[in-house]
Amino acid sequence: MKIIVDAMGGDNAPDAIVEGSLKANEAYGVEIALVGKGEQILHVFEALGRHELPAGIEIVNASEVIGIEEDPAHAIRLKKDSSLSVALALLRDGRGDALVSAGSTGALLSGATLIVKRVRGIRRAALAPFIPNTAGGFILIDCGANSECTPEYLLQFAYMGSFYAQDMMQISAPRVGLLNNGVERTKGTPLQLMTYELLEKAALSGALNFVGNVEAKEVMKGACDVLVCDGFTGNIFLKTIEGTASFFMSELKGIFMANAKTKLGALLVRKNLLQLKQRLNPDAIGGTALLGISKPVIKAHGSSNAFAISNAIHQACNVAKSDIAAKLHENISSMKTPEQDAQQVE
Amino acid sequence: MKIIVDAMGGDNAPDAIVEGSLKANEAYGVEIALVGKGEQILHVFEALGRHELPAGIEIVNASEVIGIEEDPAHAIRLKKDSSLSVALALLRDGRGDALVSAGSTGALLSGATLIVKRVRGIRRAALAPFIPNTAGGFILIDCGANSECTPEYLLQFAYMGSFYAQDMMQISAPRVGLLNNGVERTKGTPLQLMTYELLEKAALSGALNFVGNVEAKEVMKGACDVLVCDGFTGNIFLKTIEGTASFFMSELKGIFMANAKTKLGALLVRKNLLQLKQRLNPDAIGGTALLGISKPVIKAHGSSNAFAISNAIHQACNVAKSDIAAKLHENISSMKTPEQDAQQVE
Hints:
Two copies of one chain form a homodimer.
Chain A: E1 2-6, H1 15-28, E2 31-36, H2 38-47, E3 57-61, H3 72-78, H4 83-92, E4 98-101, H5 105-116, E5 126-128, E6 130-131, E7 138-141, H6 151-168, E8 175-179, H7 190-204, E9 209-214, H8 216-219, E10 226-228, H9 231-256, H10 260-280, H11 282-285, E11 287-291, E12 297-300, H12 306-322, H13 324-331, H14 338-345
Parallel strand pairs in A: 1-2, 1-4, 2-3, 4-12, 7-10, 8-9, 8-10
Antiparallel strand pairs in A: 5-11, 6-7, 11-12
Helix pairs in contact in A: 1-12, 3-5, 4-5, 6-7
């Protein structure tokens, strides 16, 4: 297994990326192709006390870097020798099994679509993070790749999320829910109403385990394994969880630091609280899969440290093993809107 | 000050509604008109040891009840003698200063619009709850009254929320933010893009303190005093906060109950933790204002207990004092889309 890593993407690049790659190489025995400015990468290895490239790690030189502030599609077209473009070309050419980047999400989306291409028939790639909840966790799809969606996109997201959950969460028939403002089938905007019908039809055919509309509150209690929504709503949903979690952590800190009595209380629950914090730590998961691309692509957080990068590489190995792209390819005929089905029948 | 209360609406009606009304009458000296099945209401007073109607409380008989499962618009048209319909007619006729109902949100929306009417020129009424955050709290508008919105609706929500925050939060120039999936002005769907322009124009004229797009995460840290969005997104946002809060409370309970050591820790922080729980308790706020209606209407939670109803009545008094409808009426000319402005100029 070889993972291609964009060494120059992310707030802490290349230091954290190189260190995280080294960790993953040592921990999981995975081969790594580090793509970026060779001298800078070697310099990081030097600083880590490695005067020679460790076995299983190679450097692929790329002279440019795509900044987080650049227009994604423009940057991908312009900077042919950027670390991201070169890394994506390596993935396309089969010179690695999966790709990890902590750089610009937009550039990764544009680049993966342009260079690696989507699975044939898939309309849009989608970001599918794993989110912890009371029941363990669930897959959210899409969390921000596509602000505007059609019912057909959401149908495809449901399939992609379902295949992903089967492999990554080891669930044979993942419960797919549609994020909505109520559980009744009449709820939502026309997008949700039309998507409901498509998902219901897919459920009747046995292809999906659609459990209906789910409310945001119930998702956190475990109402579904895969939560389907457009990228705008998914982004609001995800960032609201993050914001509320930060709010709670900050309030708890205030409570524990209030006085000598509460400080003692804090000491007594410290270990258990750290376990919760660790469970909610996005770094422990490492990254978010970009599903619908013909080869495995993992987006690591922009603020990733070495620990997060190492976990993202581990996750990339798992996604590469599961071969979701092949499942999508096999099932693409079921992932079309009724209009298209009707045309084929006629 | 007299508040009209729908005695039959809500999961705990009429018991909690009557008891909460009595509490508010005693605590704030507010007069109450309890609307509903007279005998049932008197029976609750009996059970509370009140064999005569307390001074300042009257009963207005209404023979029907609108259930939470009924089609809202249909029920309002059909059940002319429902507690909600009668209560709304009393409000319309000036026989009270504000209305409180814990019944069906949809029926309250339909009924308030049909019977009491919107402020002239206001396109849609919107639900505007107060939500606690690290900085104290903010007003969310709309949280679910309108799943589908136009940029003009959102412009009007911004004004409504701003006037409301001025009066209820005592802020002279409330910071109005547009909920979006990024802070850049190019973010979001066409709805957010077009709304941004309208809000920016309103800010230039000095009418609104528009602080731009805000991300869900930043709102919880205090990025704005008024958060504007369509009702679908607002509903997801609000229920995600509730779900994440429940998740945290449940996890914390697990942590504190883990073993003898953590149980002791729990005892030491108990008081401070209860204060936080109380601050986040929706019952302490009592209800959500339905803004844009020509007279004050407050939606109390369906699960309201007596404490929540008492607080909702107190809140109704404050909204009645602030007279937001008059402010909306005075400023309605600024609350139109550019197309309409242009037509007027020509």
